[in-house]
Amino acid sequence: MVGIPSLEAVSAAAILRADLQKHFLTICDISQLFLDLEEVGIDVGGVALRRVPGGVYSEDVEIWLAHLCDGDFGHFGPGRIIQLFDKGRRICHEIVAEEYKHKPELLTRVLSILKFNEKEIRFVLGATATDLPTVQSL
Description:
Layout: H1 7-20, H2 27-39, E1 50-52, E2 55-57, H3 59-68, E3 74-76, E4 82-84, H4 86-102, H5 104-113, H6 118-124
C-alpha cells in the first residue's frame, strides 16, 4: 500500500465523523490527525505541522478549511469550530468518495489508524456496499 492521503480527504472524513458524533472540530484538532498519521509512519506529503501551546497547528489545514467554510458550505463558529451546512457535508462526502476510488486500502487504513470504527468508515465513505475493506482485513 503506497500513496499519500490527501489533506482534503482526511479533513473531510474527520469533519463528517465529528458530525456523526455530534461534536465539532477545530483547525488544531484536524492538524493533530496529520501528526498522528506521521507518528505511525504514514506519509502526509507536504502538510506542514508545528507545535503551538495546547496542540498542533497547520496553515495548510487552515487554508483548506477556510475555503470549505466559505459561503454556502459552512462557517467557523465560536472558538473557530468548523460548522458545515448540508452543502458542505455533501462536498466532504464527495471528496472522501473520490479519494476512496483511487486509494481504497490507504484511505481505509488511515481512517482505522485515526480510530474510526467500521460504522464511521462506512458513513464517511457514504457506503452501504458490503465490498468495502474492513478494518480486520487490513
